[in-house]
Design a protein that fits this description.
heterodimer; A: about 210 residues; mainly alpha; elongated; B: about 375 residues; alpha+beta; two-stranded parallel ribbon
């Protein structure tokens, strides 16, 4: 069976609106992993990611008629719903999350000053260490940068699709992605530098893990 | 290209986004000449590589756990069924039985089912998830059970609809039958000749049976002529006439010479009908004409009721016009009475003149009907003329 034989998202959505339970199940099984990953990468909590995934498809079930194919794909529509629920969850749990980022949202220095005489960013890290560093750095980004990075870098969305999912302009996506990447580089460099210092001074304070959720 | 222009496109350059080839060449040339921009580009590319590794790792590992996925799917299915009260199934959708067989076959051969094929061809990750979801026995059993339950509900709903249709039709038939029955009864009551004839026979039987008439007739003590003369105070002609009428009526009851049969007797068929009193505006000083009328009305209630019954039976309607009661001479001095008796008599037409009423001289020899009101003490109090 070829790919062309499988119904499209829009076709499944149409069947789902007609009350076809199987279409809904197929749509859920096709899109639930991406939605779950997006929520997980945005908030870092499996519990919140599961709740967000469930909420996304409940909203789809109830408000599927609001989906406009001319404005974007169904995946972008689902990501947009998930993003709203994730931001809501982050807002709810903000009071319980200490942000231990020393740099915080400080202004990023001009690129020329940052990258002069800098070594390779992740050269000395293993694959697992790289993944962990990147994961922590992504989670440490502000939400409006994080969502762009997650969609465009981790879910390989185009600028247009990300703009449709987030409900903003393509230029906004580009600028936020540029700034988010710059912040990621800074965080990774800071993390690597801290780890190098810890290796030289093992008795000093441990490296701070910047995560939204433990 | 300067550093500022390079900064604008460095993200796309590091992400290997499609761009204009000339711009790309110019940017790479600038990076070769500018050390800071080259370092920046290297950092960006390193970040892109790290993000790509992270994305691959997340795609491979970060997925909802199997139990969590099944739980979410079950919850969503419940919500879906609640949202869509009557679930519609597309004709092309395989039946629950075919889904079961396909699912078992796929579980055994580790192949994808038609149900999972869209997922399987979407990405390897979703294929794995779909397989795990399909292989989950709890999810399959729940799905099959839900499908069977939906089938039962549809059958029950169909039976219920059939019953409702039958009940509606039965109710309509009953309503039509009842309407026809009552309409027929109403038409018979209004137009059936048998009922009319029966009523006439009953009325005739009443008239012909003296005992029946006696039971409803108003009987009272009849004053004799002397008493009437004494009590009328000189209105002798009236009293004589009244006495003659009374005697005439009482002749029909031989066993009770002093009793008078009144009202609807066989000899008085014209009494059947309604009575209409004319209004007399003449005042009668010292005596309550309204009181007499009330007493007379109370006394004649039984008679009127009887007449009304006969009237309804015969269907004949006669209008009886009566004057107000004229007090008789001497009645003013008597105590007023709360009850009394009315006696219908016939008088010479000349008696009208005694009470100041006009008299047609051409019909002077005819007789007129009058009602004489007697009190409880048997004394005549008033008289009225009836036509």
């Amino acid at each position: 069976m070829g790919i062309s034989d499988s119904p499209s998202d829009v076709e499944l959505l149409r069947l789902m609106l007609a009350g076809d339970e199987d279409a809904f199940v197929a749509l859920y099984r096709r899109r639930q992993a991406g939605v779950y990953r997006f929520a997980m990468q945005m908030c870092g909590s499996p519990t919140v990611a599961e709740d967000v995934t469930q909420e996304v498809f409940i909203v789809l079930m109830r408000e599927a008629q609001k989906f406009d194919p001319t404005r974007g794909s169904l995946a972008a529509y689902l990501y947009g719903i998930a993003r709203n629920h994730v931001l809501r969850a982050l807002e709810r749990e903000r009071a319980f999350v200490p942000i231990a980022d020393e740099d915080g949202d400080a202004e990023v220095a001009p690129a020329h000053e940052k990258f002069i005489a800098q070594t390779d960013l992740l050269a000395d890290l293993s694959r697992n260490e790289t993944i962990e560093k990147v994961r922590q750095a992504v989670l440490a980004l502000p939400a409006h940068y994080r969502e762009i990075v997650v969609l465009c870098e981790l879910h390989e969305m185009s600028y247009t699709e990300a703009a449709a999912a987030l409900g903003c302009a393509v230029g906004t996506v580009r600028s936020r992605l540029h700034r988010g990447r710059a912040m990621l580089i800074e965080k990774l460099r800071a993390s690597v530098a801290t780890e190098a210092n810890d290796d030289q001074r093992p008795t000093t304070h441990t490296a701070k893990t910047v995560r939204c959720f433990a | 290209m300067n550093c500022q222009n390079f900064e604008h496109i460095i993200t796309d350059l590091a992400r290997d986004i499609l761009m204009d080839a000339a711009t790309r060449e110019q940017a790479l040339a600038h990076a070769g000449d500018c050390a800071p921009c080259a370092a920046h580009l290297a950092a960006e590319r390193t970040l892109s590589a790290g993000l790509r590794i992270f994305a691959l790792d997340a795609a491979a590992e970060v997925a909802p756990p199997q139990q969590a996925s099944a739980r979410i799917e079950s919850a969503l299915l419940s919500a879906f069924r609640q949202h869509h009260g009557a679930t519609k199934r597309v004709a092309a959708t395989p039946s629950p039985e075919s889904t079961i067989s396909t699912t078992h076959a796929s579980t055994d051969s580790n192949a994808t089912t038609p149900h999972a094929s869209p997922v399987a061809q979407a990405s390897p990750q979703t294929t794995q998830e779909a397989r795990s979801s399909i292989a989950a026995p709890v999810s399959i059993q729940e799905h099959v059970a839900a499908s069977q339950q939906r089938a039962r509900l549809r059958q029950s709903f169909s039976n219920r609809q059939s019953f409702l249709k039958f009940a509606t039709a039965a109710a309509a038939v009953v309503i039509v039958a009842l309407t026809t029955f009552f309409a027929a009864r109403t038409w018979q009551a209004d137009n059936a000749p048998t009922s009319f004839e029966q009523a006439r026979r009953e009325a005739t039987a009443d008239v012909a049976a003296p005992s029946a008439v006696t039971s409803v007739a108003e009987t009272f003590e009849t004053p004799n002529a002397d008493e009437l003369a004494a009590q009328s105070g000189g209105n002798k002609s009236v009293i004589d006439a009244a006495a003659a009428g009374l005697i005439e009526d009482s002749s029909e009851a031989e066993d009770e010479p002093r009793a008078i049969r009144q009202a609807s007797t066989a000899s008085w068929p014209r009494a059947v009908g309604t009575t209409t009193r004319t209004t007399n505006s003449r005042p009668h000083a010292g005596y309550s004409n309204a009181g007499m009328n009330a007493v007379a009305a109370a006394a004649s209630d039984n008679r009127h009721a009887r007449r009304a019954g006969q009237s309804s039976a015969t269907g004949a309607v006669e209008t009886e016009i009566a004057t107000d009661f004229f007090p008789l001479a001497g009645a003013m001095t008597l105590r007023q009475t709360d009850s009394g008796h009315v006696v219908r008599v016939e008088l010479p037409r000349s008696a009208l003149a005694s009470f100041g009423l006009p008299v047609n001289t051409e019909r002077l020899g005819e007789r007129v009907k009058a009602d004489v009101l007697f009190g409880d003490d048997g004394i005549a109090r008033a008289i009225r003329f009836v036509r």
